[in-house]
Write a structure and sequence with these properties.
2 domains; Gyrase A, domain 2; 14 strands; alpha+beta; 6-stranded antiparallel β-barrel
């Protein structure tokens, strides 16, 4: 996957350093990959990534366009912590089915198969976009942007946030969204008749309902205002229908 960059974090404080910053429980590295995000203090999304257990290190598998800014942000937070953050030449691989020896199950959903960091090749001819759409799995830079809140993006369902781990950057806002009220907006699966550009506005009776994102096989991922999303909706020339599920 040439669209991914792998950072390496070394040093005696590497796990405690990450534990105080990211949305998920870093102790889960003992069992395999940890999917997590780094947020702003206001609870907005900055980056999502996989933490990968490695010999005397933690690898960070992140979308390449976000890699430099993520490394800079981590370095800003390290202060006196015994950690070193550097880029690697590792190219992640992924495939379908149970994880083979030396690979790790993708923690977001069983349909996403496995990921590996040992130089092997990815499975060929897999329609990953169709799989994402079928299971409402957001992608960095498409459904996940700097306007995103991770609970609206489904991170609880995707095993990307832990509510028992203690403090991290943006934790207060995330916890309040979890416990104070039901979500009024968020990503959901919709049916689409036709097609529209990614990011197209969804409307109903002339009112804004949300935005249409990745589309495949008559289905799509949409960001919706749940109180307005009902009946026939449109996104450009496409007809959009939501069944009330995510």
């Amino acid at each position: 996957m040439t669209d991914r960059t792998v950072l390496k974090i070394t040093g005696a404080d590497r796990e405690s350093f990450l534990q105080g910053l990211v949305t998920n429980d870093v102790t889960g590295l003992k069992d395999g990959l940890v999917y997590a995000a780094l947020l702003t203090p206001q609870g907005k999304y900055l980056a999502d990534f996989f933490l990968v257990p490695a010999d005397a290190a933690v690898l960070v598998d992140v979308s390449t366009p976000l890699a430099q800014s993520l490394a800079q942000r981590l370095n800003m937070y390290k202060l006196r912590a015994d950690v070193t953050i550097e880029a690697t030449e590792i190219t992640p691989a992924r495939g379908l089915g149970p994880a083979p020896d030396g690979a790790f199950a993708d923690p977001r959903h069983t349909a996403l198969g496995w990921r590996a960091y040992d130089g092997r090749a990815s499975d060929a001819d897999v329609d990953w976009e169709a799989i994402r759409v079928a299971h409402c799995i957001p992608e960095t830079g498409i459904e996940l942007t700097t306007d995103s809140y991770i609970l609206e993006a489904g991170f609880e369902r995707l095993n990307g946030v832990d509510f028992r781990k203690g403090c991290y950057v943006g934790q207060e806002v995330t916890a309040r969204m979890k416990h104070k009220t039901a979500l009024k907006k968020g990503l959901a699966s919709v049916s689409v008749d036709g097609a529209a550009p990614v990011g197209s506005a969804i409307t109903r009776d002339g009112k804004s309902v949300g935005s249409l994102f990745t589309q495949s096989g008559g289905k799509a991922i949409a960001y919706l205002r749940f109180d307005r999303a009902a009946g026939d909706m449109t996104a450009g020339p496409a007809r959009v229908v939501w069944d009330g599920s995510v």
